[in-house]
Write a structure and sequence with these properties.
Largest sheet: none
CATH class: Mainly Alpha
Number of domains: 1
Helix content: over 70%
GO molecular function, one term: enzyme inhibitor activity
Radius of gyration: 26 Å
Protein name: Pectinesterase inhibitor domain-containing protein
Distance between the termini: 70 Å
Number of helices: 7
CATH architecture: Up-down Bundle
Shape: elongated
CATH topology: Butyryl-CoA Dehydrogenase, subunit A, domain 3
Domain Pectinesterase inhibitor: 37-193
Low-confidence stretches: none
Number of strands: 0
Subcellular location: Secreted, Extracellular space, Apoplast
Structural class: mainly alpha
Pfam family, one: PMEI
Order of helices and strands: HHHHHHH
Mean pLDDT: 86
């Protein structure tokens, strides 16, 4: 029996193991490079928005699904915005059920509920329209999406208009303002990314 056989087998197994480790490391490196490229794409795309840091913070978790697709990025921005708008609506509805609201506050909150509900509906319409952008009527479809997102932004601004008076309860005003400002900035970012689709 060849006394070198165990050594040859050991060498063979070491070679196989080294090859597997090398392939695994290479695949991991490629994945990391792809992820970095996708994240860089989002960072660059966010520069067209008014709030690039917020854009990057909220959309970077979508890097692997968005990859380098501007339509998917705009769609992700709308999804993030719709979630925020729905959370805002839930919060304002909760505030509207508070006791001891002054008549002026109750009226402003009621109006804000309606404005925010309209905003949620318009964002939903935008998301639905984004699914059918391809085709000869791209410009018309993208303009419709921009119109709905712009209307949502207007509704959010209108909500805040009702709380401009100093006589309003500071805590209620501050809470609603925090929600509305966040969702308005997200809506603005989504609109910027959607407008950018026209340049591709």
């Amino acid at each position: 029996m060849d006394s070198c056989l165990p050594s040859k087998l050991l060498y063979f197994y070491c070679l196989v193991a080294t090859t597997i480790i090398t392939i695994t490391c290479s695949a991991t490196k490629i994945q990391i490079l792809h992820q970095q490229a996708n994240t860089q794409f989002i960072k660059t795309s966010c520069q067209v928005t008014l709030y690039p840091k917020l854009c990057m913070d909220t959309l970077s978790p979508y890097a692997s699904s968005v990859q380098k697709n501007p339509t998917k990025l705009a769609n992700a921005a709308l999804i993030v915005t719709l979630k925020a708008a729905q959370s805002t609506l839930d919060a304002v509805l909760k505030l509207s059920k508070m006791n001891n609201l002054a008549p002026r506050e109750a009226r402003a909150i009621t109006d804000c509920v309606e404005n925010t509900r309209d905003s949620v509906d318009e964002l939903r319409q935008s998301l639905a329209a984004m699914k059918n952008l391809e085709g000869p009527e791209f410009e018309k479809k993208i303009n419709n999406v921009m119109t709905w997102v712009s209307a949502a932004l207007t509704d959010e601004d209108t909500c805040m208009d009702g709380f401009e008076e100093n006589a309003m309860n500071g805590k209620i005003k501050g809470t609603i303002r925090n929600y509305i400002v966040n969702v308005a900035q997200l809506t603005s970012n989504a609109l910027g990314l959607i407008k950018n689709l026209s340049s591709f």
